[in-house]
Amino acid sequence: MAPRPLTLSLSKGHPELVEGSGRAYIGRMEQQTVTLSPSAAARVAAIASKQGKPAILRLAVEGGGCSGFQYKFGLADAPDADDSVAETDGVKLLVDSVSLDLVQGCVVDFVESLGGAAFRVENPNAAAGCGCGSSFSV
Question: Which residues form the Core domain (predicted)?
Fold first, then answer.
């Protein structure tokens, strides 16, 4: 009797072996669906250090804003059970499972210009956005 092939399936970042591929994987594999840029990571680290908090940024999406949805940023103490976690330069970016559908594939950046400094989300899922960049529609 030949051994049955196995496939690695990711469930909230936790690997599970399932039948089908012929390969077995050992260890933890992360599927990064949201990216934190190095400039955003540096800014989060600086803010967190001043406030005496861990360098963990939470990105959430809420209804509202001029385009239908708006981004919400805040420092977090630790990841929740349903969070997806991305890490850049030791700084973590958390996204809850509901918001992840709307920001999958995005890059969170920190930009400084003459108009000010802000976190910006480059979201490939957004069909339209507002001028300030804090709200979007899909």
Answer: 34-133
